[in-house]
Amino acid sequence: MIIAPLKKQIKRVTQPVVRKLKPAPNIPLKPASSNWGVDRGTPVSRFYIDRFMNAHRDDITGTVLEIKNPRYANSLGSALKRVDILDIDTNNRHANIFTDLATADCLPSNTYDCFMINETLQFVYDLQSAVRHAHRSLRPGGILLVTVPCTAQHDSELKDVEFWRFTRTSCERLFGDVFGQEMIEVETYGNFASCVTGLTGMAVEENDPAMYDNVSPIYVQGVCVRAQKKREIH
Ligand SMILES: C[S@@+](CC[C@H](N)C(=O)[O-])C[C@H]1O[C@@H](n2cnc3c(N)ncnc32)[C@H](O)[C@@H]1O
Question: Could you list the residue range(s) of the whole structural domain that residue 94 is in?
Answer without folding.
Answer: 45-190+220-228
